[in-house]
């Protein structure tokens, strides 16, 4: 079984983001960039499948600019065998990302695609579902558990009501929730080893897909700030304030 | 210009997220159709006729639609799509799971999780866990959108008399089999929809202690929520998580107990009207956005609050 993992390079989740003063977007220059957090869960799951002898090869793919190589090196330091960077200067919308991933799937013929459930920058939560539809492969979204037996796939999905259990077949597209597993840290020797693992680069233009922007961003602004509140001295004061000032109880 | 709203339901009742989505649709057009896909939904469809804002109900009733497998639902929606200028679904796990498949089949980029509608083609959505607000515009021939339910009022459920149109089921080869759903039963209000939410974090220390929170919630007729740390540690189920990767809530009153206030948590609750934070660490960032902060040990504070509430109730009765 060959496993493909889609990895996005995003502003690190610990960074306090800043809206650009010209309101065209969010400042991404000179801020720490990392692997999109749920994509780390996808990487971890792929590496585990390899360790369990279920996966024969694991491949990470990312679409982004030259700098995106760093998250692919991180993926390989975590245990991914090799990676592919599809070079694109402009950020793509989920539909275009999915079309790009479809091309890579057609080239690499994986049996399983693992992705994150959502990118923490655009918070779209779309790409895996779109890829599944484009490939006409089963989709399993927001998974918190995965079991593969032959070509049978058993998953638990996190839904608003609790957990949903599904059974499906390979090949499939699965999107990972943060609770699927605990991503490992890359050890120093593995970081060194990852430098020698293959990282292929292809230009997005060679894939001949429509990557044009369909959604225009008119402006990006700061969210309204909440007014500073007060500290109360004790429980009695709290309850009184909630009752007579805020009138919410 | 007609707007199609994809109903979220449990084959018996509409979820309240559907009512929020209908209100959002009404900001775009007066001509709104409600699409109900499910199994044995005669009663559900008939009851939905009374929603005043709905002009027509389109229903497809088939046993294969019982569990909302997106691969089975999406061809039916795609088949109707060209009649509509906008297709809306709630940005619940139901809508998130389903609508991007329509994006794929129509080759249209979807706009996720909008919190406002500027005009028929311009929408407002949070990005970066709500740390930035983006205004986006599209000239695609169909606007595919998921709606954040807490950003739109629930519509009235009475006063209307919509027609029902039944459409045929479209069979599709799907290899996914539904096994089961593990749903926790509770008499408390629904988290996404409650007037008061009491949320617990890692400060609660274990699932036993969450009982304290349940007691407080019951006094306030509140829903219970949790931080990711509390869910990850197994104190409570995933369906209670509030935040960027959990549920969005915007109650009248949100009480955060033993929660530090990470941006990913704030993303899910900072639109609440009144926020109370109870935390023993005066430096906890949750205090920066709380209307009322109480720096105290929760194991002392919560029983005291319950006592005070009892006292109030006795005075009032
Ligand atoms: C991609 C991503 C997505 C995420 N999504 C979410 C999300 O959707 N929702 C979410 O909540 N988090 C999310 N997180 C996690 C988030 O970053 C924080 O780790 C999490 O919210 C912390 O939970 P907590 O506040 O309960 O725990 P902690 O940060 O450990 O805080 C516990 C607090 O309890 C207080 N405390 C301890 N004991 C007591 C006591 N006896 N009395 C009073 N106070 C006490 C402490 O002072 C502390 O402030 C996400 C993280 C990432 C990276
Ligand atoms: N540029 C990209 N390169 C590789 N994978 C991506 C990219 N954008 C999105 N993805 C994948 O799609 C998932 C969902 O992203 P989104 O639909 O944008 O929220 C992410 O967690 C990644 O696994």
SSE layout:
The complex is a heterodimer of chains A (249) and B (317).
Chain A: E1 2-6, E2 9-11, E3 33-35, H1 37-51, E4 57-64, H2 69-77, E5 82-87, H3 94-108, E6 112-116, H4 127-135, E7 139-149, E8 152-159, E9 162-169, E10 172-176, H5 188-194, E11 199-203, E12 215-221, E13 230-232, H6 235-245
Parallel strand pairs in A: 1-4, 1-6, 4-5, 5-11, 6-10, 7-10
Antiparallel strand pairs in A: 2-3, 7-8, 8-9
Chain B: E1 3-6, H1 16-26, E2 32-38, H2 42-48, E3 56-61, H3 70-80, E4 86-90, H4 93-106, E5 111-114, E6 116-119, E7 122-127, E8 132-138, E9 143-147, E10 163-166, E11 177-183, E12 196-200, H5 210-219, E13 223-226, H6 228-232, E14 253-257, H7 263-266, E15 274-279, E16 292-295, H8 298-316
Parallel strand pairs in B: 1-2, 1-4, 2-3, 3-10, 4-9, 5-9, 12-13, 12-14, 14-15, 15-16
Antiparallel strand pairs in B: 6-7, 7-8
CATH classification, class level of the largest domain in chain B: Alpha Beta
- CA-CA gap between termini of chain B: 53 Å
User: What percent of residues of chain A adopt helix (DSSP H or I)?
Assistant: 25-40%
The overall average pLDDT of chain B, rounded, is: 97
What structural class do the secondary elements of chain B suggest?
A: alpha/beta
Tell me how many strands of chain A there are.
13
Indicate how many domains the architecture of chain A comprises.
1
**N-to-C order of helices and strands of chain A:** EEEHEHEHEHEEEEHEEEH
Q: What class do helices, strands and sheet pairing of chain A give?
A: alpha/beta
Q: What do the pLDDT scores of chain A average to?
A: 97
What would CATH call the homologous superfamily of the largest domain in chain B? HUPs
What can be said about the biggest beta sheet of chain A?
Answer: 9 strands, mixed
Residue share in β-strands of chain B: 25-35%
What is the number of domains of chain B? 2
Overall radius of gyration of chain B: 21 Å
Task: State the separation between the terminal residues of chain A, measured CA to CA.
Answer: 57 Å
